[in-house]
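Hi Y.,

Following your request, here is the sequence exactly as I used it, all 463 residues.
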Amino acid sequence: MRFQQQLSFSKALNFHTLIKILVDPVLMIASLFILTNYFQDKITSQYVVLSIMIFALTFPGVWVKAKSFFEELFNTFVQWFLTIGILLLFGYATGYLNHFAQQIIVLWAVITPVILVLAHLLVASYLSSKYYIASVKKTAVIIGVNELSQQLFDRVNASRELAIEVKGFFDVISEQSSSDFKVNDIELMGTVADLPEYVKNHKIDLIYIALPPSLHDEIMTVLDDLKDTTASIYFVPNFFMADLIQARIDDIDGMPVVAVCETPFSGFNGFMKSISDFILATTILCLISPLLIVLGLGVKLSSPGPILFKQRRYGLDGHEIVVYKFRSMTVTEDGDKVTQATVNDKRVTKFGKFIRKTSLDELPQFINVIQGRMSIVGPRPHAVSHNEMYRKVIKGYMVRHKVKPGITGWAQVNGFRGETESVESMKSRIEYDLDYLKKWSLSLDLKIILKTVLLVFRDSKAY
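Below is the corresponding structure, written out as tokens. Let me know if you'd prefer a different format.
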């Protein structure tokens, strides 16, 4: 759910929002310019082009206040190494890297993450300070007493940086009203008929309407009565109580529409995901090509049958794709019924047991990534027969196919790899897949890749 976006005063760029989206790109570019100016007489056009690329990669910034110093350190360094990695790979592949002074680039790569961490700590401290909160503090009231208004109230109180003080609640007197809903720590100030006078007398800045659409007439009356005030009014639709995927407000020729289930890889995000997948997959395949030859020979010599195991699985938007793996079993099932591998499965060959344990059997899927069928990180694809079975018993199962399947995923690095022994186990895996769709960022992808590498040789669920 994206209440934080809804509570950021809509699309208005207040100081709090502006800091979050600009702090990283501005500091990255500023540190580059300062170092360039210090070691060179002037800033050349190459550095200007590089700064534009940095801004394109990092704007809008994704920085949020971390719960601890170590979390801040990890998040910042992961985001930075992902950014600098993409820039260096692009520079090396195009030869553009030769146009820059090596000393400047090395110092910039080392100093910038330190500057970012210090800046984040200073900004977090300032945004939580009494001085800042007092300078931007706004008062608010919420119309409606229900589960939605309770959640809104809790989130406002939990986000000190929003600097919003909820003075109380007003409710609609109606048979459809949910005024009998008991909300913690809430003072009911009166009915909506009392609202305009209260707003004017107490100089209320913000009004949040958390009423169900069934009270359309009452909502329109409230809006009409509030025209004589200067308060900003926001409608919090109750479908935000649902488990939304990449919710956002858009428009079609001026008519507002709300996305409640959308892929995170639309527009620039999709471009960045595709570019990073292609560059990383190509680089990895070049580096591991000798290993692929050795593994192919191992599969061929260990048991009769093809080297590669090809299986139909669901890809983006539920379209069937063919996924490659090194064959690790004596069978190559791809029919209406596919039996998952279990502990001490007799179908698994001796060499197959080794490559499954170390996840080396998955390496041919980097070819799938270059083909555009898969991503390096995403929900793991299941056999078509398993998809057809689970989509009937798990709500929201097919939503995971709003993105390309991945070689590794958020569920796998959180303990849900290998055989799913029950529907409940599969439900837990799907919950992580959907959580990935909600939280996606390039830094999250890198975090999953790093965790996957660490898990390869110590995952007890690989067999």
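The radius of gyration is 27 Å.

Thanks again,
Q.
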